[in-house]
């Protein structure tokens, strides 16, 4: 299906997020971000620590205010000042899975209360029996048992706590989920379990994910499209396999060169590419996202755009 035929569920339009750092100084954490997320897809936002990916995710959740631009959800603006009813609608339909499953759960509350909190706030149940039934179903949907609801978060492993966090988000029947590095705090052995669970729930409930990560190998497994962010700027957007096959921006090439390989011989001889922004074309021309191929955008000038097109042609010929 072409992108023109797909329904856009979330639009980021020229979004800036700026923080006050004291002494009248400001830090521009996100700079002129632009992209659309289509209904039913997993859109990954990838970058190193401090690149602004979590900041942008929190802006979607209305935790961080936008200093410029706007965010649209289902065609309606959700950034800036909106009515209380619209704000409740955002909370109801956009949920977040947090990076640290231990810090995101109330240690003094039972699992039943942690998962039920959204139901209490929006009164999404007729009586106590229905609320408990919803909690039981939510826990079962993430591979936990109903009897777990009387326990406390500290009694669970990291993977189980993350499952509780997923259940807490899913019980609201959201349309869109911001998953902020949901597996980075987990043991390697259970990361695949959580990713498989998220894929399963996505298929069953027709969910849309914004999956924030720094590990490209994980993103390749779960994402339909990937946006690469560097120092607050989106530098490349493409379908997952296209990005791995035809990386264009030097920062994307650098990130891919750092992905660990399971072959020890290849790993020993592999050359890591360090990204050096000073090697980019020095010009006064404004860089912007330009479409090198249908659906493949690169942050570049006109001259760089021409070179990327030529590079793409060469790579396509070499790879057949």
Radius of gyration: 21 Å
**What is the oligomeric state here?**
single chain
Report the total helices: 11
**Helix/strand structural class:** alpha/beta
Side by side, the strands of the main sheet go 6-7-8-3-9-10-12-11
The helix fraction, in percent, is 25-40%
Overall shape: globular
Architecture overview:
With 320 residues, the chain is of the alpha/beta class. It has 11 helices and 12 strands. It has helices spanning 53-60, 84-93, 111-122, 128-141, 158-170, 188-205, 216-222, 240-245, 250-257, 264-269, 302-319, and strands at 8-22, 25-38, 42-46, 68-73, 76-77, 94-97, 176-180, 208-213, 225-230, 233-239, 288-293, 296-300. An 8-stranded mixed β-sheet has the order 6-7-8-3-9-10-12-11, sandwiched between helices. A 4-stranded antiparallel β-sheet has the order 2-1-4-5, with helices on one face. Strand 11 (288-293) and strand 12 form a beta hairpin. Helix 3 crosses helix 4, helix 3 packs parallel to helix 5 and helix 4 packs across helix 5 (158-170). It is globular and about 65 Å long. It starts with 7 loop residues before the first strand and ends with a helix. The mean pLDDT is 90.
